[in-house]
Amino acid sequence: MLQDKNQKIATLLAFSLIPLSGFATDIYIPSLPSMGLSMHAGSLQVQMTLTFFLISYGISQLFIGSILDSFGRYRFSLVALLVFAAASFVIALTHNIYVVYLMRVIHGITVALIVVSKRAFFVDVYKDKQLKHYLSLFTIIWSAGPIVAPFLGGYLESALGWEYNFYFLGGLALVIAVLEFIFSGETLKKPAEFHLQKITAVYGTMVRSTDFTLGLLMLCFAYSMVMVYNMTGPYIIEHQLHLTPVIAGYCSLILGLAWMVGGFIGKATIERPFFKKMATNITLQLLLVSIMIISLKFVNGLYAMVAFAFLIHVCAGYTYNNYFTYSMSRFPKNAGIAGGLTGGGVYVLLSFLTYGIVYFIPAHDERNLSYSYMILIVLSAIGMYFIHRLNKKQEAKVSLLAAAA
């Protein structure tokens, strides 16, 4: 069990692992074109390394939560760190795209174990306002991955080669595993019974909660904006604009900052009326992407693309921060399942959604990127419309019950 004297250090270690999923995807974003050349693979084949990770990461989270709620968090997380490190080293040593696909599936499963267990850590250890405070920090802490990883990856790729992105991931996982072994421990005090029928009933209750399900869709649309850029941005920068992987890394760093800014704004406005602030946010995104599309007739290039993407990603980070805080605190008695369903559902949906968008709207230029943003923002607006209708119905029910009383 986690010792009280190590709680602060264990909390810091838990926060350090929250961005791992972002690191696992973003550190080699500037290296996608180089990996394709090295493995004699096309752009779509290399982009599939992201898709395989997202699918395995998402599907794993759907089931891992119930296991962690029944058998504990700590040991699973520790073993997963070691397996993740081993898979990273294999990717660095191989130049076979199909071996990379398999290792990326293993990456997805192990990162799911790590991240879901650390989300549940906070629900186990902290309560009420303190828990809400920490959950609202998740999006901000997570954004450290998209900020630091591509910036670091661009330099590693330019100086040493794309393989060293994965050597770094493996080394980082080993260091944290040692620290976890020394300072962390089990936080689950009352394990839930691993009863398949009961677990299925809990999943059914969550999925049937319309507000929870709509929240998952809004999270999916928000993060898909980031993933669409990750899958297309490096090709636009390095192939169309003929710039270096370091420049691609700097651009990803800037957009990671945008996500963090959105998280900070979300935390600062956490007490504001929910629907009003989210409707304002969606309206702003629609305005920005419309201006982006129109402006391409007069101005284009790196600075214009990054400027518009930055503002759109700020709004996406704001959306994600608000809905993630709500979804994670919606079912506190089943924190592992709620965390797994939240993360897993989002990643499964966005893996297919982003691959479909990239397939039908290839990474040719800024115009295609703007169209991808427009599709996702319109879907978000539709989601907000249904959320508004749901809120109205709930308000009407409350009014009727109050009148009857």
Helical stretch tally: 16
Largest sheet: none
Shape descriptor: globular
CATH class: Mainly Alpha
CATH architecture classification? Up-down Bundle
Tell me the total number of β-strands: 0
Given as residue ranges, the uncertain stretches (5+ residues, pLDDT < 50) are none
Commentary on this structure:
This is MFS transporter. The chain crosses the membrane at residues 48-68, 75-95, 101-122, 134-152, 164-183, 216-237, 243-266, 278-296, 302-323, 335-358, 370-387. Its main location: membrane. It is found in: Membrane. The chain has helices at residues 7-17, 20-26, 32-39, 43-71, 74-93, 97-125, 128-142, 144-159, 163-183, 196-208, 210-240, 245-268, 274-295, 302-329, 335-360, 366-404. With 405 residues, it is mainly α. The chain has a single domain, classed as Up-down Bundle (Growth Hormone, Chain: A). Helix 1 packs antiparallel against helix 6 and helix 14 (302-329) packs antiparallel against helix 15 (335-360). The longest helix has 39 residues, at 366-404.
Secondary-structure map:
Blueprint: H1 7-17, H2 20-26, H3 32-39, H4 43-71, H5 74-93, H6 97-125, H7 128-142, H8 144-159, H9 163-183, H10 196-208, H11 210-240, H12 245-268, H13 274-295, H14 302-329, H15 335-360, H16 366-404
Protein name: MFS transporter
Domain Major facilitator superfamily (MFS) profile: 10-395
GO molecular function, one term: sodium:proton antiporter activity
Q: What labels would you give this structure?
A:
about 400 residues, mainly alpha, Growth Hormone, Chain: A, about 85% helix, about 0% strand, globular
